């Protein structure tokens, strides 16, 4: 909007971008030198986008990096010369607060992917000021939204039509059939938009208007970003990922289908888990042959969806070891949280890769090839109370463990939920102002969090601002409870942690072990979970 819009080199809007006159002059000098413009809108400042004399298409995925741990009083005049060491900047988006300081992080889109890769290599831990090191990592250009609350009887085409009615820029919907009944979906869909900005606008609209589809309220948030793998790595993959299988389809049936198309001995291994599986080949050529011929073919009445498995670099994603105990999945009714789960690995690679399956169910059991984390101890912690039917449910102690081969903070690390006892509704305490009371001016900063009565969401935001970690990002997931009621859970991403060194950083992604029926309570549970893991709840 024009009210939120400021621009350097725009004579129609003389409002300065910076309160400091020296910095304002430096910004103008930068724009005069480079020919770029700086525009401020919607809480961020854009440098370029596009750059001057740009006639090509907008750079695609893989061209953007996240830059964190910025000094709060640093601006484009200092940052741009450093970023330009690695290539031509298409657009720099510096996140700003209401006081005119940056929020500790920015996004930089280069004109070429090779330049972004150079920035990842050369600028991470770059000393931009004395004692202040930048944190640089790949930015995920997410174009997908997770939409929960979809009636299970609706088909893909119907969902696509409805989503186009309530949002603009929809290009596709991804719907996964139920493992037990292929005629039904799983109660959620992934909606794909033409670009990240369109997806962000759609998310904002849907979260504010809360529309109903077919009379059902929907839950909307960012989908888990698709796993991106380097092209050179994908060119060596010789494992196929097969999904949309029937529960009763066996590994022997799966192997027979693939073996019929390649020479004897071409298949080294077959593993099926619930409604998906992996087929290992001796050569990539044999894998590609089967992919082309079997994708979409019916097996037990269900069309197989066949693709190359995506390896996730173990050293930069998470450290794994083989699980000591595995729980059969066939006997479980999982709590479904859509996302990517590492499911197998290929020992032939010099660098160990864990192969990620498609968006599937994470469960309380540990699937094949997954791992627990030996350094993670099962520490008992208290869970946040939830309110159901006007009664506050106070759970017992819950044990935090790493499950499904993913550390705490990645979807799927779910545990059993302890029962609790009911109490009467909690009412806020009120006290009368008496004539003999002395009112003393008090600085809120001198009070403990318990005295301020701040919500976990507020406490987490303040902590992240204090530590220059960026704003916490809440991503909504849903699952169907045992009684058919839709349950919600928020996963929290802390952008600043993802830019720190792998060996020293905490996980940038946190997932609580509790689901609930209220979106508001789910968000508080998520924030409280992060505070507990960071051990700052009482700081």
Automatic annotation (TrEMBL):
GO molecular function: RNA binding
Record has Repeat as a keyword: yes
Boundaries of every DRBM domain copy: 455-536
Ranges of residues in domain RRM: 63-141, 143-225, 238-311
Presence of the UniProt keyword Transmembrane in the record: no
Entry-linked InterPro entries: dsRBD_dom, HnRNP_R/Q_splicing_fac, Nucleotide-bd_a/b_plait_sf, RBD_domain_sf, RRM_dom
Location of the protein in the cell: Cytoplasm
Cellular component, GO, one term: cytoplasm
Cross-referenced CDD domains: RRM1_hnRNPR_like
Protein name: RNA-binding motif protein 46
Superkingdom, taxonomy of origin: Eukaryota
Keyword set, alphabetical order: Cytoplasm, Repeat, RNA-binding
